[in-house]
Amino acid sequence: MSIPSHVLELLQPLHPPGTDFVRSGDRISPSTSASSSGSSESRLQEYLYKAEAGDATQLVGEAASLRAMNEACAEVAPTLLGSGTDDEGRKWMLSEWHDLASISAAQQSRLAEMVAQMHLAPAPNGQRFGFAVPTCCGATQQDNSEEDSWAEFFSKRRIGDLVERIEDSELDKLGKEVQQRVIPELLGKLDVKPSILHGDLWSGNARYSKNRDEPITFDPSSYYGHSEADLGITRMFGGFSPAFYQRYHELVPKTEPADQYEQRMQLYEVFHHLNHTLMFGGSYKSGAVSLLEGLLHWADQKGL
Question: Under CATH, what is the fold of the domain 5-97?
């Protein structure tokens, strides 16, 4: 397959003069003959090229996510080398290719350090809760319209948006009640600033990179939000060790009031149960219902 000129312009300065490149599907590699005389880094580094015609919302969102994550923590995700629109109107992005393996228990602490560094990085001046472009969590295009208030953003752009799109009367009732009674109490009083989030940090999107000899995350669905919101899906599918949470919270202490941390985690997790209900149907509804009912029971106990 041919390699577009705008891609070669990005790759050639990264390799010795005269290096040729070969493309197989989305994967671009220095040719064997050229890389054999180059450095070990030249031999090892390969690249991921994506191009889409028409509605390329997911690709554009992924590129913007990687760019923001790279700026916050260079190690946490593949490096984005470039993105744009080609001469035929197709959206494209070029990033590092990583050969992946599972993360060992010993590497979980290092992963936590990377995620914490990303969350602790200051947001751009004037950045509100949300993101400049839509991003896709799985197949779901997220409403990232910005809000000044984290509680308003999460209530309207996350829980409310999904409940409305699912069109299930039980979830509609429970979701609206959580919006009215729970979210103002759990999120409305928090003193938090926008952090760049991965947005879809389940264990399948966190692996060990053989290229870097480090953990890495990928397939982001980023936006600026409360750092703890990134942990919601880590609980849904498991795969994250106690060492991950221990090291993370050594660097990013639980937001005050810490005694409401567990309820916040349930709230952030329910978003992903709702999203999976929207994508895959009723098999995930029971998890969403259970979490929503649990939050409302907590509100009852609090007299809310």
Answer: Phosphorylase Kinase; domain 1 (3.30.200)
